[in-house]
Amino acid sequence: MSKYIDYNTTRDRNIQFLELYKSVDRFIRDAYASDEGLSTYLRIMENESLFNQRYVPEWEDDHKMLKRVRWIRNQFSHEMSYDSDICEESDHKWLASFYNRLLSSSDPLSMAEKRKQQVIQRRKEACIKRKEEKANNHSDTIIPEQKSTFWQRIKKLFSRN
């Protein structure tokens, strides 16, 4: 992480921020087989936010910061010079931290996927347990004699005579 946060001037910080951004973007492009990198990641977050906000505590904060770092990158690419101070040290540090989380599969989408797999596994186990209990309960159950219907009892009553 320290190799990304070694700068003397605003310009150095901005250039290193953009290099780090490129690394994050490239990683996401490869991981998600996408041409849009970080924009793809954001789109997935937006499409899956209802389920995942409950299970990934930092979901909203990460979403906001990802939008911010993409905006900063766009400003440098299209409008601002590298000497601009729109990129703060905290933005750079956050992006470095996010990149490390991507590499260690502890980013929001990875955490959400792990959580989904846990939920699926628990449901499978519960289903198997219910089936086993049902099978065990049926093997011990004695099936009662069927009651005869009203008409069967009438017929039986008159057939005695």
Sequence-ordered SSE layout with sheet pairings:
Elements: H1 10-31, H2 38-47, H3 49-55, H4 59-78, H5 89-103, H6 108-140, H7 150-159
Helix pairs in contact: 1-4, 1-5, 2-4, 4-5
Structural class: mainly alpha
Sequence of secondary-structure elements: HHHHHHH
What's the pLDDT, averaged over the residues?
86
Number of strands: 0
Total number of helices: 7
> How many structurally independent domains?
1
| Helix content percent band | over 70%
Features:
single chain; 161 residues; mainly alpha; 7 helices; 73% helix
Overview of the molecule:
The chain has one domain. It has helices at about 10-30, 40-45, 50-55, 60-80, 90-105, 110-140, 150-160. About 75% of the residues lie in helices and about 0% in strands. The chain is an all-alpha fold and about 160 residues long. The termini are far apart. The chain is rod-shaped and about 110 Å long. Helix 2 (about 40-45) runs antiparallel to helix 4 (about 60-80).
Quick summary of this structure?
It contains seven helices and no strands.
